[in-house]
Amino acid sequence: MGGRVTRVFRNFNVENRASREISKDKPTPAPRHPTARLDATADSPEIKEEVFKKDDRFLTLLKDVYVESRDPPVRVKDGSGEHLPCKQEEKRLTKLGHLEALDVKKVPKGKISIVEALTLLNNHKLQPQIWTAEKIAAEYSLELKEVNSLLEFFIPFAVQEFPKETKKAITSHKQKQLT
User: Fold this and answer.
1) Hey, which of 62, 128, 130, 133 has its CA 20 to 30 A from 49?
2) What's the rounded Cα separation, in Å, for the pair 57 and 59?
3) Residue 117 sits in which domain range?
């Protein structure tokens, strides 16, 4: 219902309004900037002649100019504001076993790869007396505090296999038939 009402008002006296709009005089364009007029006068021969003419007074002044340049003295920066690396990071070869193809070959000192992290966590879980935090820190070039945090907060998954007898008990149970 609302669409019909709005359509009536929108279409009311359309032809009259359109003819009134068409019959209006076109608006006058805005005045041009003075630089636009200079482009048209630049093609005139008098201006071209003035541009290419040599002025003897300016040439004598130009010959009197002598430029001597010197590099400023080099200042040694103390490095207080900038933190540029003074040496490249030391890298170590990874200690991988049979998973060598899955991981990177070199790791920066103080860091470990994912495969190494899983390996050391698993070794600590299986033999905590041998793989202590101190030994892991020395073996992988890590800080003791970080190794303690790693061993405390990350635990590898444990895979459990169910005995076969339980599997047989589940399959031997008769299924109910739908009637």
Assistant:
1) 62
2) 5
3) 91-153
- For residues 147 and 12, the model is more confident at 147
| HSE-up (13 A, CA, CB side) for residue 11 | 6
pLDDT digits (tens, 9 = 90+) for 149-174: 999 998 877 777 777 665 555 555 55
Q: What is the pTM of this model?
A: 0.37
DSSP assignment, residue 102?
G
CA distance 92 to 105: 9
Please check whether residue 106 lies inside any domain of the structure.
yes
> Would you say residue 141 lies in a domain?
yes
The answer to the question of residue 24 being in a domain is no
Contacts of 97 (CB under 8 A, 6+ apart): 119
How many Å apart are CA 63 and CA 57, to the nearest integer? 10
Residue 100: pLDDT band (50, 70, 90) is: low
- Per residue in 109-128, pLDDT (tens digit) is 888 888 888 888 988 998 99
Q: Would you say residue 27 lies in a domain?
A: no
If one counts the domains in the chain, the total is: 1
Beta bridge partners of 92: 107
Instruction: Give the containing element (helix H, strand E) for 72.
Output: none
